[in-house]
Every structure is written in structure tokens, then in C-alpha cells.
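Supplementary Methods. Inverse-folding protocol.

Structures were first reduced to a C-alpha cell string of length 80. This string, shown here, constituted the complete conditioning input.
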């Protein structure tokens, strides 16, 4: 369980690094949870309605998170 807690901490830190780039476009990203090798996030602002959000998540966010841990298989935007 400790390893999962450390991984979640690293995921949250990486999302903090990504946040300024999304903020420049009027968007934001919020961590929701990590479960079953998937990172669940909430896209906010302009990102929430962007037609390119799948590309941002899969090619941008996922690739950066996989640098932390290759066990991360997907990044999923949740609608809260």
C-alpha cells in the first residue's frame, strides 16, 4: 500500500508541473484518484470542453505519467 501512496504523490506532483501549461490556455486539471493502473482526472475550464482533450490526455498527460511508472495504462477524464 505504501508504494501506491508514493505513486499517487508522484502523479499529483507531475500534474502540478503540467497545470501551468493548461492554465495558459484557460484550462486546468485536477487529480481524482489512481485505481487499477488508471489515473482519473477532472479537466476544468476550457479543457473541459476542448475537442482535443483526448489527445491532451493520451499523448500529453499519459506519456508524462508513464515516465513516473510504466504501470500507468490510461488517463481518464471523469465528469463530476
Amino acid at each position: 500500500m505504501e508504494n501506491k501512496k508514493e505513486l499517487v504523490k508522484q502523479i499529483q506532483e507531475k500534474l502540478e508541473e503540467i497545470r501551468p501549461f493548461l492554465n495558459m490556455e484557460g484550462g486546468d486539471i485536477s487529480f481524482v484518484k489512481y485505481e487499477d493502473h488508471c489515473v482519473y482526472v477532472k479537466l476544468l475550464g476550457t479543457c473541459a470542453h476542448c475537442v482535443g482533450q483526448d489527445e491532451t490526455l493520451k499523448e500529453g498527460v499519459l506519456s508524462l505519467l508513464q515516465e513516473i511508472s510504466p504501470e500507468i495504462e490510461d488517463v481518464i477524464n471523469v465528469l463530476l
